[in-house]
Write a structure and sequence with these properties.
Number of helices of chain B: 16
Helix content of chain A: 25-40%
Number of strands of chain A: 16
Number of helices of chain A: 14
Strand content of chain A: 15-25%
Largest sheet of chain B: none
Distance between the termini of chain A: 56 Å
Order of helices and strands of chain B: HHHHHHHHHHHHHHHH
Number of strands of chain B: 0
Structural class of chain B: mainly alpha
Structural class of chain A: alpha/beta
Radius of gyration of chain B: 24 Å
CATH class of the largest domain in chain A: Alpha Beta
Distance between the termini of chain B: 36 Å
Largest interface: A-B, 45 and 32 residues
Shape of chain A: globular
Order of helices and strands of chain A: HHEHEHEEHEEEHEEHEHHEEHHEHEHEEH
CATH topology of the largest domain in chain A: Rossmann fold
Shape of chain B: globular
Oligomer: heterodimer
Chain lengths: 400, 417
């Protein structure tokens, strides 16, 4: 009896404190809600509240905007500004130049673990920051001609996909990608993009619907069959899905072609051809590695991604499925990968680009689809797409 | 980032790589021997009494300790290499009289190293092969027995064949039985996701009891009237040939084991199948994305692993025992797990580790009879070696070795990995 009374009493105090603190900082959170039911933005607010509750004077935010819609980012920035006004110090780590320019009082640029310099937003520009990050001049905008779409390469019809827990993650998606165009799929991470890409590449069974690549039904195809029908795949997690880190660069370059001539002769692998091809491709794609025998794990992220790009782009492909192809890369590598993707498009390849980075979609895609809760909200041509429009769609709001 | 001008620069010299790979196991062995010395001293009553009077007579304490160690490791040495004095004498005698009998006896201990190492090589290759595909085959012991049973059956029931056909046939029957046995676990893993550790372990018990049943029933020597649970002897045409006079038991199995090690190396590192198996083992997700059929590789790798383990059993039946008996393997299959780790999952490493284990086991017998040190001490040495290899950070700190750059192979994944 006493115990229950005591517990209730403690609970009451805690609740008051919680409400109190969330009101105090202007962070609206329902104290009785389960974390799993909150939106990612609200989850982040809880995380921040947790730290403020312990009277922190300093917050370190590591890429806090990666999982937010543009509107949620604005919300977060409001919170950050009010915290700063109360005297809290914030360290805001980000690779997005615009955000840093918008929120920071001082900006410090790191390169290879060293401080390159410290500056103020008023005294610098995104281009100047990019130069500091890479150490050379970087072209931030992608230079590309208007697309010349050809025949339909990828045809997705009423696609339904379940995740490992048998929850529907993709529900009734239909779209087409034509040769020579880039279709961008925007959307906050975790809205079914991963499952969509896995389904298209044969890695995940398709619950309902039809996928056709160049007229061939690949709804039930194995990953190998999909690859063989002319599909290149840049997976979203390169270290998990794209590379074998404990293998040398040369082996990673033949990871999905090792069984084909000229690399295979019967059941034997012809090492001479593998090495010769690796040496040639390392040069062609400017992969900075001490040797083709270096393990993939000791390459930088950008060069690891170049290994994947070199492997996929040198096969005879008609469709490129690129999932977050520049995730976590430095500005210089992003520039390189973007140029290569546009090059593939201009050579007549159909490109499906999935990325939660709105800027990436806006600068590369010829048409843009927005995914929200497993559905496509809308598909807009590049001429009609603005960050605001896409941002609203990403939050699930359809304009009247 | 500095760009190296020469892209395809020479690989790190082979000797450098061998030295790097060998440093850890060799230092582990040395450390294990030192640590085991503590156990030798601690279990020796004379040493303990001498040390209880350490402050009154430190010299005697140290001398007694030194003598105990010299006796123990001296006996181990003689057990391993034979008695040097005896070898000299018999070699002299051989040149004087041409007597091979004495020579054979003098060299007998040394030759035994290879006899003991033979099943270790096969079983070690089996476990290492599994590791390469990310599979943890702890069922080598059961596969050894199943392979031995199949080999024994073909060995004694088929008669009238020439050696050139009968011996390979017997060996192959053993290997196939092992492949089937381990293949069950591989199939369950591939199709049902059942963890191979559980299944190979359980298949061990099934195998042990199956052998027990066979040796007390259908395969029992003398049928129902027979008294001991042992099979008939295999026909001589199924023997693995020996090359030296009695009592030397060295047989062709050792050479076959070396050839199989080369074959395994070739399969793993030079063929498309090996590439697939290693990719699946190194990164399951990347393997799937690259279009590799995971299920097929799990089943194949497990079956090949089982075949290799079973060869250990077949080799013992055809080369040493010439029949099937319960308990003929003193745990080769279990030791081989440690051995495969010591060998770094590489066929060459496995052969070297198997020679070491064979040597230790062989020397231990002598140590027990000469220095009255329990045979378990060798298990302690082995355990320490494994411990140091499994926790390389200890050795690296102890000897200030440079840390390897990402080249470490992952031998095992966690549960459900």
């Amino acid at each position: 009896m006493y115990l229950t009374t005591a517990t209730r009493w403690i609970q009451k105090i805690q609740e008051e404190k919680k409400c109190d603190i969330s009101a105090q900082y202007g962070l609206q959170v329902d104290p009785d809600a389960y974390i799993k039911d909150l939106s990612v933005g609200a989850q982040q607010r809880v995380e921040i509240l947790k730290i403020l509750y312990r009277r922190a004077d300093m917050l370190i935010l590591d890429e806090p905007t990666a999982v937010l819609t543009p509107q949620e980012v604005e919300e977060l920035f409001k919170v950050i500004r009010s915290l700063v006004a109360r005297g809290v110090s914030i360290i805001f780590i980000s690779h997005k130049l615009k955000e840093v320019m918008a929120i920071a009082d001082r900006i410090t640029v790191l390169r290879d673990g060293r401080v390159v310099g410290t500056t103020r937003p008023a005294e610098t520009s995104p281009a100047a920051l990019a130069r500091m990050m890479v150490g050379r001049e970087v072209i931030l905008t992608v230079d590309k001609q208007p697309a010349r779409p050809g025949e339909v390469v990828l045809d997705v019809n009423d696609l339904h996909v379940l995740d490992d827990r048998q929850q529907t993650r993709v529900s009734g998606i239909s779209f087409q990608v034509r040769a020579g165009e880039i279709l961008g799929i925007a959307g906050v991470q975790g809205n079914g993009q991963t499952e969509l890409v896995e389904a298209l590449t044969g890695l995940r069974p398709i619950a309902r619907g039809r996928v056709t690549i160049l007229g061939n039904d690949t709804t039930r195809a194995t990953p190998r069959h999909v690859l063989q029908s002319g599909v290149a795949h840049i997976p979203e997690d390169r270290q998990r899905d794209g590379l074998v880190l404990t293998f040398p660069v040369a082996d990673n370059l033949v990871l999905n072609t090792y069984y084909l001539p000229p690399f295979a002769r019967g059941i034997r692998i012809d090492e001479r051809t593998v090495f010769a091809s690796a040496t040639q491709r390392v040069q062609q794609f400017d992969i900075r590695t001490p040797s083709i025998h270096t393990l993939a794990s000791s390459l930088s992220g950008g060069n690891q991604q170049k290994v994947i790009v070199a492997r996929e782009f040198t096969r005879p492909i008609r469709l490129l499925i690129a999932s977050q192809p520049t995730r976590g890369l430095d500005v210089g590598s992003i520039e390189y990968i973007h140029q290569r993707i546009v090059e593939m498009r201009d050579q007549g390849c159909a490109v499906l680009l999935v990325s939660p980075e709105l800027d990436e979609i806006l600068s590369l895609a010829d048409r843009m689809a927005v995914m929200y809760h497993g559905k496509i909200m809308d598909i807009l041509p590049a001429s009609q797409a603005t960050p605001e429009k896409l941002g609203l769609l990403m939050a699930g709001v359809r304009e009247g | 980032m500095a760009r190296s001008p020469e892209i395809s620069q020479a690989r790190v010299s082979m000797w450098q790589r061998v030295a790097n790979a060998m440093a850890l196991p060799v230092l582990s062995l040395l450390s294990a021997l030192v640590l085991s010395a503590v156990f030798i001293l601690g279990s020796d009553l004379k040493v303990l009494t001498a040390f209880s009077q350490f402050f009154s007579d430190p010299a005697r304490a140290l001398l007694t300790a030194g003598k105990a160690l010299a006796d123990a490791y001296g006996a181990l040495f003689i057990g391993v290499f034979g008695d040097p004095a005896k070898i000299f004498k018999e070699v002299g005698e051989f040149f004087a009289t041409g007597d091979t009998q004495g020579l054979a006896i003098a060299f007998y201990p040394f030759s035994e190293n290879f006899v003991t190492a033979t099943p270790y090589i096969f079983a070690g290759l089996a476990v290492a092969f599994g590791f390469r595909c990310g599979l943890f085959n702890i069922g080598a012991e059961g596969q050894i027995y199943v392979g031995a049973a199949a080999a024994a059956f073909v060995g004694y029931s088929v008669e009238g064949l020439p050696w050139i056909i009968h011996a390979p046939l017997t060996f192959l029957a053993g290997a196939l039985a092992g492949a089937f046995w381990a293949g069950i676990a591989g199939f369950l893993k591939a199709t049902r996701g059942a963890h191979e550790v559980i299944n190979t372990m359980m298949l061990n018990y099934v195998a042990f009891n199956l052998i027990h049943y066979l040796l007390n029933g259908p395969m029992k020597r003398g049928g129902a009237a027979g008294t001991i649970p042992i099979s008939r002897n295999i026909v001589e045409s199924a023997y693995l040939p020996t090359f030296f006079p009695e009592p030397i038991r060295f047989h062709a199995g050792f050479i076959v084991a070396l050839l199989v090690a080369v074959l395994v190396w070739w399969l793993l590192f030079k063929t498309t199948l090996g590439f697939e198996i290693r990719t699946v083992g190194a990164n399951l997700h990347a393997a799937r994305c690259a279009g590799i059929n995971i299920s097929r590789n799990f089943i194949l790798a497990m079956a090949i692993s089982g075949a290799l383990a079973a060869m250990a059993g077949a080799g013992e039946v055809m080369g040493v025992n010439h029949n099937l008996a319960e308990g003929f393997s003193p745990g080769y299959g279990f030791d081989s797990i440690a051995l495969a780790m010591l060998g770094g999952g590489h066929p060459l490493g496995v052969v070297l580790a198997a020679l070491l284990f064979g040597t230790l086991r062989n020397g231990a017998t002598k140590m027990q009879s000469l220095a009255a040190i329990p045979i378990d001490l060798v298990s302690i040495v082995q355990a320490f070696v494994i411990m140091f290899v499994a926790a390389p950070i200890i050795i690296r700190r102890l000897y200030r070795l440079k840390t390897e750059v990402g080249g470490q192979m992952i031998l095992m994944r966690g549960w459900g990995g």
